[in-house]
Amino acid sequence: MLSQALNSSVPRLIRPDGHAVEWVVSPGRIDHPDAVAEMESRVAAIAEGRAAERVWLLEHPPLYTAGVSARDGDLLDGTRFPVHRTGRGGQFTYHGPGQRVAYVMLDLTRRGRDVRALVRALEAWLIGSLAHFGVEGDVREGRVGVWVDRKGPGWSREDKIAAIGVKVRRWVSFHGVSLNVEPDLSHFSGIVPCGIAEHGVTSLVDLGVPATMDEADAALRTEFEKVFGPVKVLNAEDAGISAVRP
Q: DSSP assignment, residue 45?
């Protein structure tokens, strides 16, 4: 296990020019292909200097996504929900209602061209956000994402509470992170999450923290500014995003 102390040394990826990152929260649920198309367009615009950086927070309808390292055998039930192949790093994961997905589109040319530093900063962001709810998250050697220790009389285990899967194109990041607030955890049973069969998944509510999505968003925003710098809050309409499923 890597200790919490690791995160005190995580580099803060703040732009020297102090430009704010657009912070957009979409209501409803966004279909995965629509989200990817929106990200692709935005990443191209950021790379060409035509658009500001953006963090886009949303929920998806139930689905599985496969990263570039996904193994076919880790898809245990391919008929349960739609399966989307994606270019992000990582393996299979689940997205669905009650899970906050944050797509992170940052210009790494302006923040240091260091993908490892980006991943460590994303970990620190999530760990700091969980601390708002009294949850001690941590990272594990050889595993991606953020984990929590769970213990009871005569038992202990490690459960994953947040996933990270990013891609970088022309030194602009996209895809991002997901935090389990109150998803249906049984939906994870159709895959081997992130290729790790020996550990489970959890959420804030599963841990006994009655957090709302708005409360999770507030924590994420506060901690994002500590790690990545200031944000400019936009609603989805002003951001030009309208692809919402009721």
A: H
Q: Which of 194, 211, 220, 241 is catalytic?
A: 194
pTM of the predicted protein model: 0.91
List, in order, residues 6 or more apart from 100 with CB less than 8 Å away: 57, 59, 178, 179, 181, 213, 216, 217, 220
Element (H, E) at 135: none
H or E element that contains 159: strand 155-169
**Residue 217 designated active-site:** no
Per residue in 12-42, pLDDT (tens digit) is 899 999 999 999 999 999 999 999 999 999 9
For 1-37, letters b (16+ CB in 10 Å) and e give: eeeeeebeebeebbbeeeeebbbbbbeebbbbebbbe
Q: Does residue 181 surpass a pLDDT of 50? A: yes
CA gap 131, 223 in Å, rounded: 10
- Name the CA dihedral angle for 118, 121, 123, 125, rounded to a multiple of 10 degrees: -130
- Is the distance from CB of 96 to CB of 184 less than 8 angstroms? yes
